[in-house]
Each structure stands twice: as C-alpha cells, then as structure tokens.
Specification:
By secondary structure, this protein is of the alpha/beta class. The chain has 2 domains: about 180 residues, Glucose-6-phosphate isomerase like protein, domain 1 (Rossmann fold), CATH 3.40.50; about 130 residues, Rossmann fold, CATH 3.40.50. The protein is built from 14 helices and 10 strands. It has a 5-stranded parallel sheet with strand order 2-1-3-4-5. Strands 7-6-8-9-10 form a 5-stranded parallel sheet, sandwiched between helices. Helix 6 links the parallel strand 3 and strand 4. Helix 10 runs parallel beside helix 14.
C-alpha cells in the first residue's frame, strides 16, 4: 500500500489527455441530458466526487446507479439520453458488468474509466479512459482511486472548458508528490486506540471523506463513517462528545465555512478534532497544500494514505492484506 500510494503522482502523469479531448468532442456533438455513475467501493467514492462537480460545472443532473437493479432484480430503468460513467479498477465484477450492459441496452452511452485495459468492461464500453495506475497488488486501492478521480477531473475540466482547472491539473502529478511528503503523524495519538471516527467534508470533498472512512475500516480495523458537514447535523452529531475523534476536511470554496464551524463546535464538546484544509480551526491542524479548490481534496487523500499505512501498523494490522477481503471483489 505504501509503495503504491507513493506512485500516484507518476500514475496521473501517464494519463492520456488526448483520449479525454476526443471523448469531449463526442459529448459536445451529441449531448447527454443526464449523467449516471456506476462503481463499487473506492470507485463509487470517486463517482461521488464527480457527481458534485458535474452538477456544479456542467449543470447536468447526476446520480449513482444501483447495480442490483439490473444484476439482482433484472429491472434496469430507461437510460435514453443518459451518459453512464462506469469506474472500476479490474473491470470485471459481475454486478457492474450486468448494470453496464443493461444500461447500454436501454439507451445509455457507456464510458469506462478502468485500469485493466483489456477487461470485459472496457470491451463493452463505447469509450474508454484508461486510469494508467499500473499494477495494484495491495487489497486497499490507493493509486487507482487517485487516478480515477484525476481522470474524472480532467474530463470535467475539458467538458466544461474550465481553463483554470485544466491548468491546475497540469501540475497535479507534482502536487501529489508534494502531498505525499506531508507529515500527518500528529494524528496518530488520537487514532491509535480509537474505536470510531467521523470523517466530515462538504461538496466534492465528501467523496474523499468516504474514501478515507473506507480505508480506515479496511486497513486499520475500526469503524469510520463519512458525513457531509450538513448531514452530520441531522442526527449523527449526537454521538460526538468528550474524546470522540473527528477528522474534518476542507477546500477553499463556499463550503469551507460550514466545515470550520463544525470543528469549533466539536472542539467545544471535548472531541478529538483533527482537520486539514480549513485554516486555523481548533484542534490538531494537519498540513495541506494551497491549490485549486477542486484539486485540494485529492491532495488531502494522498497525504492521508501515508497516515493510514502508519496507523495500520501502529494498531498491529497489515495494510496490504486486510482480513476477509480480496483485491478483486466479484459481487452480484
């Protein structure tokens, strides 16, 4: 896990910009009325990032697909006029393939973001954006998640003709290298004996929070849950009290204030507050890089992966081989 996460910047640097531009040309020539995303695990977390950004940058309604509608219930909806973004490291999980095939049969244009170029999903797709992560042997996805998000960001930037975001993405490989070098070890004392963790963000960073919570469960062996800074107020925050660990993530946009307000509120209750990307809030401030607000959350997860590896080891776990899990999960 450690070595693969460290390769994320180099992997992003290998991605094919021309493939993105060719796809955008097709999307503009034949516009879709809605976008649907398809993925499991870390891939679905990447899709959450995309959902927020497609809706805010392209103003297209975007929703996550339930694979079981096709794979279990044989009841896929009408996808006429829809663009499906199917995201997968392996490209061969039966439920994803069933959902993708059903969507294509019922009118969707299928775009696959996949790491295995000759996978069944890639063969099924109308267009393919290779993740270019290279072999990933650790059960816990790291560089394939980063390349999934990076590929989606590149697609959204080109599709929305956002020159500022495109310029920021040109520097992303180097920024990821810098983010990897940041030291988040001050979080270890609060988490080494923890049994629960909330990871809180807002906007596109919610997908990053979901990925962090998943990695905590996979590699570190304790419960973690992600919430938006708004949703946590609708019940879950009742659990946050003395000593309860909370990690809050921010980016320099309109959502930052609501996350910072929670940091102050939770610190006032005696919670163990950790935060990154929200400035001088109460609690332990973890280092982060100044960057385009769309890129900032992806840099945060790269810094987190280094912490996750150290935390897993500190808790007596092997981060490369979590119990009961396999690299390729084939669900129906």
């Amino acid at each position: 896990m450690f070595a693969e996460a460290a390769e994320a910047g180099a992997a992003v640097g290998r991605q094919d910009v021309q493939a993105v531009e060719a796809l955008v040309t097709k999307l503009r020539a034949d516009p879709s009325r809605i976008v649907v995303t398809l993925g499991r695990g870390s891939s679905d977390n990447a899709a959450t990032v995309a959902r927020y950004l497609i809706e805010t940058h392209l103003r297209l309604l975007t929703s996550s697909v339930s694979p079981s509608a096709a794979s279990v219930y044989d009841a896929a909806p009408d996808y006429s006029g829809a663009l499906m973004l199917a995201i997968s490291q392996s490209g061969k999980s039966p439920d994803l393939l069933a959902a993708a095939e059903a969507a294509k049969t019922r009118g969707a244009r299928l775009v696959a973001l996949v790491n295995v170029a000759d996978s069944p999903l890639a063969e099924l797709a109308d267009s393919v954006l290779p993740l270019c992560a290279g072999p990933e042997r650790s059960v816990a996805a790291t560089k394939s998640f980063v390349t999934s998000v990076a590929g989606l960001l590149r697609l959204i930037a080109a599709w929305s003709d956002d020159a500022e975001l495109q310029a920021a993405l040109d520097t992303l490989p180097e920024m990821l290298h810098r983010a990897w070098a940041l030291d988040w070890s001050p979080a270890l004392p609060a988490l080494t004996e923890a049994t629960n963790l909330y990871v809180i963000a807002r906007g596109a960073a919610l997908g990053i929070a979901q990925e962090i919570a998943l990695k905590i469960k996979e590699t570190c062996g304790f419960h973690a849950e992600a919430f938006s800074a708004a949703e946590v107020r609708h019940g879950p925050m009742a659990l946050v009290g003395q000593g309860f660990p909370v990690l809050l993530l921010g980016q320099d946009d309109e959502a930052q204030e609501s996350v910072a307000e929670l940091a102050a509120e939770f610190a006032g209750r005696g919670a163990n507050v950790l935060h990154a990307g929200i400035g001088d809030a109460p609690g332990i401030r973890l280092p982060s890089l100044a960057a385009h607000p769309v890129v900032q959350p992806l840099l945060l997860v790269e810094s987190f992966y280094r912490l996750a590896n150290a935390l897993a080891v500190a808790r007596g776990h092997d981060p490369d081989r979590p119990p009961h899990l396999r690299k390729v999960t084939e669900t129906l």
